[in-house]
Amino acid sequence: MNYLSSFNGLIWLLAALVLLVFLQRTLHREIQAVFLILTRRIGLTQGIFAFIFLPGVFLHECSHFLVAKLLGVRTGRFSLIPQAQPNGKLRLGYVETASGGFLRDALIGVAPLVTGSLIVAYIAIHQLHLLPLWDYFRAAEWSHFWSGLGEVLNVPGFWVWFYLTFAISSTMMPSASDRHAWLPVGLLAVLLVSLAILAGAGPWLLENLTPPFNSFLGGLAMIFGLSGIVHLLLILPFAICHFLLARVSGVDIG
Q1: The pLDDT of residue 237 is above 70
Q2: Is there a domain that residue 144 lies in?
Q3: In the prediction, which pLDDT does 82 show?
Q4: 181 has which bridge partners?
Q5: Secondary structure in 3-state letters for 170-210
Q6: 183 lies in which domain range?
Q7: How many domains does the chain have?
Q8: Quick one: which H or E segment has residue 76?
């Protein structure tokens, strides 16, 4: 068995995840720079930034809230009002939940990623038809990529679907507080797999569970990759606006 091909889904997932995080941070920085140069007011810039991502933030916090309710975990305050944090970051929203144990906390924490990925996958594949673009991108077939992009722009309702994909995929990643229970769950999973291997079930796991798990990871990689393409398409125009505004106004934001 080719072990590398058995785990290529994980390789693509890690690559797509790193790319998406990098593109998200770059695009968010460019958006904030453009509006901060235009308004010269931090509070107003933060308000505009939060409004742009409102659909994604709403879905993110609703996912936490609904999964907490389904699991019987007590919830508290729910807010979509942006708040600046002492560390300089901007919190776009939050929902308070009591601790339900590490397993339920992990499920509540991962809920926005699950719901966001499902919606992004539906829009990207069935509404925007971006799947061929992802295949061209992976194969570095740039001529096909750009010609395919031209066809995507003619999709009915393109800008609405494109905006929703952007807003949701930019806010579906779990925050640090969402991930607090992932470590014990991950350690438990590693322990169970290790015990199964020591018990002699390694070949069975590799033959029967690895293929579907690898396909699942490949599917996640595709979703993150499509989200990355959306962010990539927006970085250039915002970067150009940032550059031109800085040149005209004489004010730049690092």
Answers
A1: yes
A2: yes
A3: 85
A4: none
A5: CCCCCCCCCCCCHHHHHHHHHHHHHHHHHHHHHHHHHHHCH
A6: 9-244
A7: 1
A8: strand 75-79
